[in-house]
Amino acid sequence: MKKHERLFSYNLSISFDNRKIKFNSLQFFHLFQIFNYSFIQFIQCYIFHYSIFIWFLEKKEKMQSRLIDKSIPRVIFIGDSGVGKTSIIVRVTTGVFDASPAPTIGAGVRPISINVNETQVKFHIWDTAGQEIYRSIVPLYFKQAICAIVVFSFSDQRSFDSVPEWIDLLKSQADHPVPVVIVGNKFDIPERAVEVNVVKKFCTDNKYPFFFTSAVTGEQIQQLFEYVAENYVAHAQALEEAKLASSEEPKNCC
C-alpha cells in the first residue's frame, strides 16, 4: 500500500439485520472505480450478496444437522481466525500436523472417539470459522453442544483479548448452559505475545479449565479431549443417578 493510500485507509462498519458488516474504506474506493457505482448502489449490492451468502450458510447448517446423528454429543470450537482450531482438530483425529489447512467456511464437523474407563465415547467436533463475517452464524452451531472450547493463539495478543467476547456470545446465544474450556494454542513458539501468568489468572479467576497446546508437537491435545470426554461421562452419570434416586423416593399417597 502506498503512503498516500494509507492516509485514507480506515475500517468502517454498518449494521444490517442485527449483523455488523465490516469493510475497509480503501478497498471500497478501488471497487467504486472498477464498477463506477455510487456509494448507495454499492452498499445495496454488498448487502444483497452478503444476505444471500449468510442464507446459504444457514441452509447448509440445517441440512448438515439433519444428516448427523443427534444422539452423538457435540463439542464446538470457537475463537478468532488463525489461532489453529482446525489444526488442533486435524491433529487429534489424524495424528498429523497440517501446516496449511484451508480456511473454515461456516463450520466443519469431524467424528472422534475417546477411551474413558475402557469405554469408547464418541463426539462430533464442530470447527467454526473465526472471521468477523461469519460471527453472526456461529451461534447456529451452539445447539446441543456439551462443551465449548475457546481457542486463542500465544502468537497473537488480540486473539486472547477476544476470548471474553466469544464466551459472552456463547452465553447470550446458546439455548442451554455450555461448559467452557480455554485453550492456548501455538505454545511451542519461542517468543510468546501472550503471557502465561495472565492466562492462568484469567482462567483461575473465572473458574475455566485451561490447556496449553501445540498442533505442531501434539502437546496436551490428547489430554484436552480426554478431559472433555471424562467430564461428559461424569456429568451424564451424575444426572442418571439423580434421576434414579428421584424415582425411588417414596411418594405420599394422602
From TrEMBL:
The gene is VPS21. The chain crosses the membrane at residues 34-57. The keyword Metal-binding does not apply. Keywords: Membrane, Nucleotide-binding, Transmembrane, Transmembrane helix. Pfam families: Ras. PANTHER family: PTHR47978. This is Vacuolar protein sorting-associated protein 21. PROSITE patterns: RAB, RAS. It comes from Tritrichomonas foetus. CDD domains: Rab.
